[in-house]
Amino acid sequence: MRPTPGLADERSVDVDEPRDPAPATDRPRLVAAHTDLTPPKEAWAEFLRHCLGCRVCSDVDRVCATAGDLYRAWEAASDRALRRLAW
Ligand SMILES: [Zn+2]
Question: How far is the CA of 42 from the centre of ligand 1 (A)?
Answer without folding.
Answer: 17
